[in-house]
Write a structure and sequence with these properties.
Blueprint: E1 6-16, H1 19-29, E2 33-37, E3 43-46, E4 56-60, E5 65-73, H2 77-89, E6 93-96, E7 108-112, E8 118-122, E9 151-159, H3 162-171, E10 176-182, E11 189-195, E12 203-207, E13 213-220, H4 224-236, E14 241-247, E15 254-259, E16 265-270, E17 282-284, H5 289-293, H6 304-308
Parallel strand pairs: 1-4, 5-8, 9-12, 10-17, 13-16
Antiparallel strand pairs: 1-5, 2-3, 3-4, 6-7, 7-8, 9-13, 10-11, 11-12, 14-15, 15-16
The chain binds (2E,4E)-2-hydroxy-6-oxohepta-2,4-dienoic acid and fe (iii) ion.
């Protein structure tokens, strides 16, 4: 399958309260590598298995949360087309200069989407060290640290106007709807999972009263074995786990949710089936959501923090 157009989600900038404590968490616990720091103090990080310059930028601020969520497109020329389509859809957008706040990135198109989030689109990204070996490649050049996050995987964006947000992702950005959870009254969807490649999802959208809220950013692990080892590592190191290790029946992903020191929720996630755009949409009734989220929960209870805490 040729993956063209919008290729994958691959960048998030999140706000943290204490930079040094956060860098320690993301490097030693999550296992990201620090790539660079900007003049204004942002820290750029990447997983050990990525080529792109970085996938996570930390910005120190007074409150935690998500500044923007980014997608890589296959050609810089597509940014102009998406800008036109986004404006026609009724969304504000602006271009951000190459190599400005995100070192190693070409120009970006920042679009405000209907749920109050900002989506950045970019095409040109430099390769940074360390990256996967290219010549007679070993599986890694130095042993992954911490839980060993492999790759940027997805984000769950909470906010109002989910239906319009999903329509934007599909009509302007070309994503496909993979799975939905219906509203309690069956009118519309409370949550939608969307993909632009063969991943289960690149982004998910959750209906929530406050705009621009982050439920979580997820990094992939390979399988249940890595999820289990990650849970052990988190427990030994006193990481605050919000949910898991468990499996979602929605997406079938194996998962742990945990909090960074600023209260941003992070997920380590291992998907177990590939998505293709000719697959029909899988649909959940709201009444089945407890086991949809936590497959092994027979008490039909979800921790209130899991659905209530966002940053
Ligand atoms: C995931 C996922 C909620 C469901 C979350 C699901 C918050 O994070 O990766 O499939 O209802
Ligand atoms: Fe997730």
């Amino acid at each position: 399958m040729a993956i063209t157009g919008v290729m994958r989600s691959g960048l998030a900038q999140i706000r943290v309260l204490d930079m040094e404590e956060s860098v320690k968490f993301y490097t030693e616990i999550v296992g990201l590598n620090e790539v660079c720091r900007t003049d204004d103090g942002r820290v750029c990080l990447k997983t050990y298995d990525e080529f792109d310059h970085h996938c996570l930028t930390l910005r120190q601020a007074e409150s935690a949360g998500l500044d923007f969520f980014g997608f890589k497109v296959d050609c810089d020329c597509l940014l102009d087309k998406i800008a036109e389509d986004a404006k026609a859809f009724g969304q504000e957008c602006e271009f951000i200069d190459a190599n400005s706040d995100q070192p190693g990135f070409g120009r970006r198109l920042a679009v405000k989407i209907p749920n109050g989030h900002r989506i950045d689109l970019y095409a040109d990204v430099e390769i940074s060290e360390p990256h996967p070996m290219l010549k007679n490649p070993h599986i890694w050049s130095s042993r992954p640290r911490g839980v060993g996050a492999r790759f940027f995987d997805h984000g769950l964006l909470a906010g109002p106007n989910s239906a319009e947000t999903v329509r934007f992702f599909i009509e302007v950005m070309g994503l496909s709807k993979v799975e939905v959870v219906r509203m309690p009254d069956g009118n519309g969807d409370i949550a939608t999972w969307l993909s632009c490649n063969t991943r289960l999802h690149d982004v998910a959208v959750l209906e929530f009263p406050d705009p621009g809220k982050l439920h979580h950013v997820a990094f992939s692990l390979r399988d249940w074995d890595e999820i289990g080892r990650a849970a052990d590592f988190m427990a030994v190191n006193g990481v605050v786990i919000d949910a898991g290790p468990t499996r979602h029946a929605v997406t079938r992903g194996q998962t742990i949710y945990f909090f960074d020191p600023s209260g941003n929720r992070i997920e380590t996630y291992a998907a177990d089936f590939a998505y293709f755009p000719d697959m029909p949409v899988r649909e959940w009734d709201f009444s089945e959501l407890t086991w949809g989220i936590n497959y092994y929960d027979h008490d039909n209870k979800i921790k209130p923090s899991f659905l209530g805490v966002v940053t």
